[in-house]
Amino acid sequence: MQQLDIFADSRDVMLRNDVLAPLQRRDVAAARTALAQFAGEYPDDGALPAMTVLVRELGNGSTAPFADHAALDIAHRHLEDGVVPAARRVLPAQSVQPWLAPCWRALAQRAASLAFRGAGAGNHAESHAAPLWLLAGDWAAARAAVEGIESWWRIPAPFAWMTEARYRADGLDAAWPQLAGLAWLAPARFAALLPGLGDASLDALRQRFDAEFPGTGEIDDYAWLPAWLLVVKPALAGRLGDARTQREVAASRATVLLGEILRREHDGDQHELVKSASGAQSPACRPVRRVHGDTESAAPVSMAIGGQSPTMPWSHWPVGRRHGGDMTLKAQWYRDRLTKKSRKGFCGYPVATVAFYGPDDRRATKVAVGIVAYEGADADPVERWFCETSDARTDPEITEAVVRFIEQHGARSVAAVDRIIGCPHEEGIDYPDGETCPRCPFWSDRDRWSGGLIR
User: Which of 85, 226, 381, 413 has most Cβ atoms within 10 angstroms of its Cβ?
Assistant: First the structure.
């Protein structure tokens, strides 16, 4: 004979389970019977009020269309404020959403005939079937409901509903065009939607944007997130290029132009695009001028999309093809990160030292970065990167690696010179002590700090 567990098999637990089982099967008759017996024996049980709400909801089988938006709002509040908390109180966590879905579906069906009223409707502005279909988990029905709203892509609420429906149905990659459009149209709705999607990669991108984007710190900064994405994730250019352009929004125009620059850059002729954009006088070209500046000094993309155009302190860094290789948008972004740290001056230890070396003063083939932990300490660790065909100052992989190395070691200050400071080969290692490097004759009679001839 099996011994009963006093916790699992006590009378109140068994009666409570007798109610929950038909509730989860949505068997209203059996649930009512079990609830009556439970209430008769344990009228003060803490779960009884929530169970009563759920049993009553099961018995509410109305399918009549709502007469107006006010009636829908009342029913919506009943579900949101009464039924949802009750379900969370007594049902297993994994059963809550599946149990509530038919309730939201019934509400959406009854609301199908109600037109979208928009911002002029006051408290009923968002009373519509589309968000109810989202709560029911029917993504196709939600999209169909939004598509029934005239010019929905110009209205924040239905645009947000469509964006969520697309994400839920097809995933993040497919939803990028809608996410970009929502960011341009309604940055506040975009920012509010992201946490609800629960996408770890989106959350990480948002946190990175918050930390790196040089904007105002206001919610409207999120309109620039799609353009920023093109800088840090150029592979998204194709997906973001499918977004519905909003010509009246500067951030949208900037994203389109940056996407075109990326395409031209991939094809090897981005400088022709920049040249034509720099000469244009229309407002749409301003973001491109901010991105690439003049032929001597290109303001980085991160500054361009933030609406700023600072003077680069390392003015001798090569840009584009002037010294071989291309300065990609991503490299410009990381170079700007490094520049901002450098121009702040001394902000305390650790200090990162950055030095470039090359066979002459035109192309850097090596960069060495050291971390000085405290005053008087030697640089440790020291990391070196080399490149044979490109310039280390514009190589995107090296630029990114340098920035990540500096941030990984928590450097508070960056000390760097704005020129190549000598041969990339090391005396005593690559050639004998006391001699000049046989592979770099340019430096044999020059001061490596000034670049001037030694007389």
Answer: 226
| Total-model pTM | 0.62
Summarised one tens digit per residue, pLDDT across range 419-441 is: 888 888 887 788 887 788 888 88
Count CB-CB contacts under 10 A for residue 252.
24
SS3 (DSSP) at 149: coil
Q: Which two tokens stand for residue 448?
A: 């490596």
Query: CB neighbours of 302 closer than 8 A, spacing ≥ 6?
Result: 212, 213, 214, 228, 231, 332, 333, 336, 337
Domain ranges of the chain: 171-311, 341-455
CA distances from 247 to 180, 252, 267 (A): 13, 7, 26
Q: Which CATH number fits domain 341-455: 3.30.460, 3.30.1490, 3.30.420, 3.30.2450?
A: 3.30.420
265 contacts 257 by C-beta, under 8 angstroms: no
Q: Would you say 229 and 236 are in contact if contact means Cβ atoms under 8 Å apart?
A: yes
Whether residue 158 has a cis bond before it, omega within 30° of 0: no
Share above pLDDT 90 across residues of the chain, in percent, rounded to a whole number: 44
Q: Which H or E run includes 255?
A: helix 250-267
